[in-house]
From TrEMBL:
It comes from the Eukaryota. Transmembrane segments: none annotated. The keyword Transferase does not apply. Keywords: GTP-binding, Hydrolase, Lipoprotein, Magnesium, Metal-binding, Nucleotide-binding, Prenylation, Protein transport, Transport. Its cofactor is Mg(2+). It comes from Cyprinodon variegatus. GO terms for molecular function: G protein activity; GTP binding; metal ion binding. This is small monomeric GTPase. The lineage of its organism: Eukaryota, Metazoa, Chordata, Craniata, Vertebrata.
Length: 229
């Protein structure tokens, strides 16, 4: 399956990345200690591809909107507590007609970033339906994060920050507003997930538990420009 927005193949995606990789691994120009699969979900046009491109390349895909066809992925290695954590990030098509394709990928994902667009009430209203899908298809212990994207579009906002916060609280998932355009909170969203997954995989009995909610609250609203440790 391929998309119009990216060129990597399904076959590459399945090469050695299905579960945690705890020994030091090397692929082309890319060293990592541990690998996780993260999936981007949400209605069409909420900004999933743009969030991924912002995180991976530090750029914004403006201009004409081209919907993703099916599913594709990109890798990024981040440093978490002196470990190289590879995130294999799956960008899914938000359009209903691709739903059966994307369902097949839920089970392998260790984390899901669920997006809505703060300028689109329907995309927010559909979050509950997305959470039902996640319950039906994803692993029980999957890390979920809710993101209200396009926070730069203040004049067009129709979903209040508090509404996003309330919904997230109701489902017990962390929440933040992001902008793929300005970069606000984009790196934080992925790094928080990377930290949570790394701690889950390497947690020692005497180590304090990583608290993703607390970490996000202490870091969010900063500009997306800077590296977070
Ligand atoms: N102003 C602004 N526009 C954004 C932002 N993120 C995405 N967009 C725009 O919103 C449109 C849709 O973005 P995409 O990233 O392609 O949306 P998607 O969720 O991947 O859509 P599907 O592939 O159909 O699922 C594009 O025109 C983007 O330029 C953002 O943070 N701010």
């Amino acid at each position: 399956m391929s998309t119009r927005k990216a060129s990597l193949t399904d076959k590459q995606a399945k090469n050695g990345t299905s579960k945690y990789v705890l020994e030091r691994c090397a692929s082309i120009n890319e060293y990592y200690d541990i690998a996780f699969k993260v999936m981007l979900l949400g209605d069409s046009a909420v900004g999933k591809t743009c969030i991924l491109v912002r995180f991976k390349d530090g750029a914004f895909l403006g201009g004409n909107f081209i919907a993703t066809v099916g599913i594709d992925f990109r890798n990024k290695v981040v440093d978490v507590d002196n470990l190289k954590v590879k995130l294999q990030i799956w960008d899914t098509a938000g359009q209903e007609r691709f739903r059966s394709v994307t369902h097949a990928y839920y089970r392998d994902a260790q984390a899901l970033l669920l997006l809505y667009d703060i300028t689109s009430k329907p995309s927010f209203d559909n979050i509950r339906a997305w959470l039902t899908e996640i319950k039906d298809y994803a692993q029980k212990d999957v890390v979920i994060m809710l993101l209200g994207n396009k926070s730069d579009m203040a004049a067009e906002r129709v979903v209040k920050t508090e509404d996003g916060e309330r919904l997230a609280k109701q489902y017990g998932v962390p929440f933040m507003e992001t902008s793929a355009k300005t970069g606000v909170n984009v790196e934080l969203a992925f790094l928080a997930v990377a930290k949570e997954l790394k701690h889950r995989a390497t947690q020692q009995p005497n180590e304090p538990k990583f608290k993703i909610h607390d970490y996000i609250e202490s870091q969010k609203h900063r500009s997306g420009c800077c590296s977070l440790g």
